């Protein structure tokens, strides 16, 4: 039997990382999950611990890592504004030093490496929808910059390692993703609205609620990352991975209230600084190059996510729209 592929997932105990580890194990690979548990948790991967192909290692990617692997998925980085703004210097270090260390590892062991980049590299976009050719409109000195510029610099490093050291790289620009195991206190719009609706508390709509986002269910996103990693050497990205179905934040609030059957009222709060007005991925490249497109519609994905948060609150119940 051929040797199993040995894969490293940094940030593997986080929301997206834990789903990725799960799917990679299902595909028959060995998975080394590296995490410093800054925003992730052992609980997210508890169900994988008994699998002999899974290994969990506490490590901060800001420090060098010496392991032997064939492929690296570099996801380590706090992703929600509340979390990445708590210690902005650390966020930039994770983005930049983390990328340098993982690229150094990839170079030493000749591994293929994928970077979890972000739609935030487009900032508050002046082009809509955003295609990979757009260079972005990013504030370099605002409260979101530690994350946005850290991710932009990481992309630069990936392409320089590719040109200079001939590394096989894959850069995925991930758009807003949601699903089970999102951190309940991360202040993201999907988790906030669902928890508020389940508790019959006011739904906090920032600004007018006319700003838009495009929400991708985590299973679809993970399929996209895995498909990108498996492309030929010529495909480096950057490639947008997200769901092009665009919703205003007000629409999202109304759908969540409806799905939960909640008595919550919608209240307005100030819009955070540098909050992008609109965001929608152009996924033509993903479809053409990796044959990927999302298959989960917002209502189905939200129903599964609501069931997860309901369970977290300790009172699982049949939701009105659950079959
Ligand atoms: P998350 O916070 O749940 O996961 C990030 C993981 O990285 C956590 O487990 C955390 O403990 C770990 N981590 C943070 N700093 C680390 C360090 N220095 N060393 C080792 N581990 C560290 O976030 P997520 O939503 O799962 O995001 C995963 C990746 O996807 C991130 O790189 C994020 O930037 C990117 N991304 C996510 C979204 C989204 O909508 N969730 C959108 C765009 C990009
Ligand atoms: N948002 C909101 N109420 C909340 C949390 C977020 O109206 O309780 C808005 C936020 O201002 C932004 C959108 O929802 O316009 C998405 O926010 P999130 O933090 O989830 O993601 P990002 O801004 O990073 O895309």
- The total beta strand count reads 13
Summarize the helix and strand pattern as letters: EHEEEHHEHEEHEEEHEEHEHH
**Structural class label:** alpha/beta
Number of helical segments with 4 or more residues: 9
Biggest sheet architecture: 7 strands, parallel
Overall structural domain count: 2
In terms of per-residue confidence, which ranges show pLDDT below 50 for 5 or more consecutive residues? 318-323
Rounded to an integer in angstroms, the radius of gyration calculated over CA atoms is 19 Å
Shape: globular
Highest CATH level, the class of the largest domain: Alpha Beta
What distance separates the N and C termini?
Answer: 43 Å
In quaternary terms, these chains amount to: single chain
Task: Identify the CATH architecture of the largest domain.
Answer: 3-Layer(aba) Sandwich
CATH superfamily of the largest domain: NAD(P)-binding Rossmann-like Domain
Mean pLDDT: 95
How much of the sequence lies in strands comes to: 15-25%
CATH topology of the largest domain: the name is Rossmann fold
Fraction in helix: 25-40%
What binds here, in terms of ligands, is:
nicotinamide-adenine-dinucleotide, uridine-5'-diphosphate
Summarize the structure.
By secondary structure, the chain is α/β, with parallel strands linked by helices.
Q: How does this model look, in words?
A:
With 323 residues, this protein is an alpha/beta fold. It folds into two domains: 6-179 and 216-244 and 278-295, 3-Layer(aba) Sandwich (Rossmann fold), CATH 3.40.50.720; 189-210 and 246-277 and 301-316, UDP-galactose 4-epimerase, domain 1 (Alpha-Beta Complex). The protein has helices spanning 15-26, 81-86, 88-109, 145-165, 189-198, 218-229, 249-260, 284-290, 298-312, and strands at 6-10, 30-35, 54-58, 71-74, 112-118, 169-174, 177-178, 203-206, 212-214, 216-217, 239-241, 246-248, 266-269. Strands 3-2-1-4-5-6-11 form a seven-stranded parallel β-sheet, sandwiched between helices. Bound molecules: nicotinamide-adenine-dinucleotide (NAD) and uridine-5'-diphosphate. Residues 10-11, 13-17, 35-40, 60-62, 75-79, 94, 98, 116, 118, 174, 176-177, 183 line the site of nicotinamide-adenine-dinucleotide.
